[in-house]
Backbone:
């Protein structure tokens, strides 16, 4: 069992780096930054959010998130809308055009990954999903820890 665990642990950094590089290339092709792409992913996944919520999600200051929103707006990827629950608030939401552009860049990878997954049993897929959920949670916790820690620690 130890060698299988070691093999999985050894494979994760390469997968993470490949994903990071893919996202950077897609951001470049869309004419936005990597943080902008992270924001668009968050809006697509979680729905409309305030600028403060987006700043927290992507780890930006309020000034930086304002510039990010302006870039995404200029690129046609987001729209500013009134919060139906509190008309004083403005929400940022992904536009259909922005989501369609985003999906188009990931469509080939999503299709080939879906093709790969048909070879797995339901139990194997459940184990993969459980692992992804655990790693995402631990990665998110580590990111929060590093963001709150003193630099260099």
Residues:
């Amino acid at each position: 069992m130890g060698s299988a665990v070691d093999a999985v642990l050894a494979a994760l950094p390469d997968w993470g780096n490949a994903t990071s590089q893919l996202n950077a290339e897609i951001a470049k092709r869309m004419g936005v930054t990597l943080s902008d792409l992270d924001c668009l992913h968050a809006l697509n996944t979680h729905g409309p959010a305030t600028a403060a919520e987006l700043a927290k999600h992507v780890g930006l200051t309020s000034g930086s998130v304002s510039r990010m929103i302006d870039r995404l707006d200029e690129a046609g990827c987001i729209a500013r809308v009134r919060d139906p629950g509190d008309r004083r608030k403005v929400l940022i939401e992904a536009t259909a055009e922005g989501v369609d552009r985003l999906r188009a860049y990931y469509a080939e990878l999503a299709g080939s990954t879906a093709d790969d997954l048909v070879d797995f049993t339901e139990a194997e897929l459940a184990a993969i999903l459980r692992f992804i959920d655990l790693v995402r949670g631990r990665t998110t916790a580590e990111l929060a820890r590093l963001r709150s820690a003193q630099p260099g620690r």
In short: The two ends are 32 Å apart (CA to CA). Strands lie at 78-83, 86-94. The chain has a mean pLDDT of 92.
